[in-house]
């Protein structure tokens, strides 16, 4: 009788133990990060670095899936079509998340309201580049040339970050630049190398190799401070346009209905990774700097950037049906 009572007490104790929370057990299977751009760009490179480290931390594979198309909209739709269970995440950046809502006329989703910000990963400065041997040695010299004649700049397409950076630069310098849109950044850079256009604003990682081999001449970076891995390149602000600062962020988001405890868990795990010295070194090789924020801070940054870039899109007149 005593043994039966003891067994009953033990069973009762077991059944009253708190069950593991969703955040404590997550993930129990592979996690997918959708990159809405083609392989080889900054988004893809950063997603693979972070995905590898998260896989080590979580003990589950993290799969990178490139779903490019329509300026990132194809990948974003894929994330919204998946269950909001934390197993399909979105690798995004300011260009898709803060610009597309103002740029695309008939989006079936809202880039600001339909996604929940999880964690910022990095900032990646853009750089103004020209073909080697360019007469434009500084951003100020480029502005002076635009006042006296026709200066062309290429972009990845109407409403792209490359395009809108040119608009911001022209507005700050009080000049006119001739915009030449392409179907992606790669053909714009090809024509830059071929001498068909004068300059391009592009992400530093995408042209780091060509800068190192002197195929391209860097003129200035768009961030407020110089890029650590490319310290010899001055900023636009240093070059005659004080206050100029565009330093796009990259981060992870998910379906807005993801459980709140998973949102907080992923934010904490990513921020822990970003504090590791190894991450700073690997990001620096991509021209990027780790950028850790609280989840609420990321949400506020997104809201402010949607307003900021939306105004630039509307002022430029760019629109995609």
What can you tell me about this protein's structure?
This protein has helices at residues 2-15, 22-25, 42-58, 73-81, 94-97, 100-103, 139-148, 161-173, 185-194, 204-212, 260-274, 277-284, 295-316; strands at residues 31-35, 62-66, 88-93, 115-123, 126-131, 152-155, 178-181, 199-203, 216-221, 249-255, 289-290. The chain is an alpha/beta fold. The protein folds into 2 domains: 31-124 and 248-316, D-Maltodextrin-Binding Protein, domain 2 (3-Layer(aba) Sandwich); 126-239, 3-Layer(aba) Sandwich (D-Maltodextrin-Binding Protein, domain 2). It has a 6-stranded mixed β-sheet, with helices on both faces. Strands 7-6-8-5-9 form a 5-stranded mixed β-sheet. Helix 3 links the parallel strand 1 (31-35) and strand 2 (62-66). The chain starts with a helix and ends in a 5-residue tail after the last helix. The model has no long low-confidence stretch (mean pLDDT 91).
């Amino acid at each position: 009788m005593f043994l039966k009572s003891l067994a009953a007490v033990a069973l009762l104790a077991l059944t009253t133990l708190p069950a593991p929370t969703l955040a404590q057990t997550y993930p129990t299977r592979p996690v997918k990060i959708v990159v809405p751009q083609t392989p080889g760009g900054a988004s893809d490179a950063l997603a693979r670095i972070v995905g590898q480290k998260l896989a080590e931390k979580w003990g589950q594979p993290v799969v990178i899936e490139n779903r490019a198309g329509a300026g990132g909209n194809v990948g974003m739709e894929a994330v919204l079509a998946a269950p909001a269970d934390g197993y399909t995440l979105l690798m995004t950046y300011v260009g898709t998340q803060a610009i597309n809502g103002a740029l695309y006329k008939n989006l079936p989703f809202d880039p600001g309201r339909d996604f929940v910000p999880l964690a910022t990963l990095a900032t990646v400065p853009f750089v103004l580049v020209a073909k080697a041997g360019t007469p434009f040695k500084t951003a100020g010299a480029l502005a002076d040339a635009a006042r006296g004649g026709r200066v062309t700049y290429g972009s990845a397409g109407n409403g792209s970050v490359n395009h809108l950076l040119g608009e911001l630069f022209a507005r700050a310098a009080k000049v006119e630049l001739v915009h030449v849109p392409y179907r992606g950044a790669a053909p714009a850079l090809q024509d830059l190398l071929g001498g068909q256009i004068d300059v391009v604003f592009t992400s530093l990682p995408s042209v780091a190799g060509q800068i190192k081999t002197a195929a391209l001449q860097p003129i200035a970076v768009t961030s407020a401070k110089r890029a650590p891995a490319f310290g010899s390149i001055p900023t636009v602000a240093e070059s005659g346009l004080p206050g100029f600062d565009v330093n796009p962020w990259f981060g992870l988001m998910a379906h807005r209905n993801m459980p709140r405890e998973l949102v907080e868990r992923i934010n904490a795990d990513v921020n822990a990774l970003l504090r590791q010295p190894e991450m700073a070194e690997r990001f620096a090789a991509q021209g990027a700097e780790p950028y850790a924020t609280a989840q609420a801070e990321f949400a506020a940054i997104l809201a402010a950037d949607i307003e900021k870039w939306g105004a630039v899109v509307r002022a430029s007149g760019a629109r995609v049906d």
